């Protein structure tokens, strides 16, 4: 009987240990399920936040592109208004003044003749400045003929000798043509105003999906892309098109500005 009692006690003890083990196992399994569910929820929230962030970034990029395109459109309209309005009026006034000069007789008042000559000279200077302003806003040749002819005209007007190396190009998307043109325009303006260079070179390369415009000079170097500069505005314009602007301008080593623009 004692043996039976001992056996029963051992059996009960084993049963209690087994029950404790099962209870611990169930508790661990429940913790694992809870942890898995928490991780799943966290991953779901992170994926949602990532998708929202990506959507916002896409919208920011699209918004920047729309702003650049709207600004270019406004430039083109203003250039066209200046050409069709103020420039035509100035040209008409110039013709009237020249007609008045031609009708002066031998006994014409010398002071009046001098005044007319001065008026014609000032009008021609004003008209030249207005045309330069219109070209700076958005050159007609860029709209009508494309990037390479516009760069050729830009290079020919530069006081510093410019070598243009550009293959024949078809028409590119207008925002890309505008960005490339203004990269070259700003770079050549800096060559004239700040670089002290004796010469400059504009290079254009294009493959199936990328346009590269580079402007190099042999001037003093030291240029930087900082807030408030024309180069900062160019950097923003290029970035809005998913492009990249690079500046290499070691002091005493000349300057090279390179823009890479997607054109597919």
What this model shows, in words?
With 264 residues, the protein is α+β, with helices and mostly antiparallel strands. The chain has six helices and five strands; from the N terminus they run ααααβαββαββ. A five-stranded mixed sheet has the order 1-2-3-5-4. The mean pLDDT is 78.
Count of alpha and pi helical runs? 6
- Strand portion: 5-15%
Estimate nothing, just give the exact number of structural domains. Answer: 2
What is the SS-derived class? alpha+beta
**H-E string:** HHHHEHEEHEE
Overall average pLDDT: 78
Q: Gap between N and C termini, in Å?
A: 96 Å
Helix content: 55-70%
Taking all Cα atoms into account, the compactness measure Rg is 37 Å
Q: Name the shape in a single word.
A: elongated
Largest sheet, described in full?
A: 5 strands, mixed
Number of strands: 5
| Main sheet: strand order | 1-2-3-5-4
* Unreliable stretches: none
């Amino acid at each position: 009987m004692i043996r039976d009692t001992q056996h029963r006690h051992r059996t009960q003890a084993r049963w209690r240990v087994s029950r404790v083990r099962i209870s611990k196992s169930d508790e661990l399994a429940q913790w694992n399920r809870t942890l898995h569910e928490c991780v799943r929820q966290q991953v779901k929230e992170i994926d949602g936040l990532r998708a929202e962030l990506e959507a916002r970034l896409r919208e920011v990029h699209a918004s920047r592109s729309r702003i650049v395109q709207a600004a270019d459109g406004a430039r083109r309209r203003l250039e066209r208004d200046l050409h069709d309005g103020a420039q035509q009026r100035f040209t008409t006034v110039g013709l009237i003044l020249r007609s008045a000069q031609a009708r002066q007789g031998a006994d014409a008042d010398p002071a009046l003749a001098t005044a007319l000559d001065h008026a014609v000279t000032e009008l021609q200077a004003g008209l030249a400045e207005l045309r330069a302003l219109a070209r700076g806003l958005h050159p007609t040749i860029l709209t009508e003929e494309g990037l390479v002819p516009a760069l050729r005209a830009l290079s020919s007007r530069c006081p510093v000798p410019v070598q243009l190396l550009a293959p024949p190009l078809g028409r590119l998307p207008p925002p890309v043509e505008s960005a490339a043109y203004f990269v070259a325009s700003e770079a050549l303006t800096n060559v004239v105003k700040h670089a002290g260079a004796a010469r400059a070179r504009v290079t254009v390369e294009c493959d199936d999906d990328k346009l590269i415009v580079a402007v190099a000079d042999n001037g003093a170097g030291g240029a930087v892309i900082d807030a408030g500069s024309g180069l900062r505005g160019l950097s923003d314009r290029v970035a809005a098109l998913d492009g990249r602007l690079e500046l290499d301008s070691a002091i005493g080593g000349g300057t090279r500005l390179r823009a890479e623009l997607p054109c597919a």
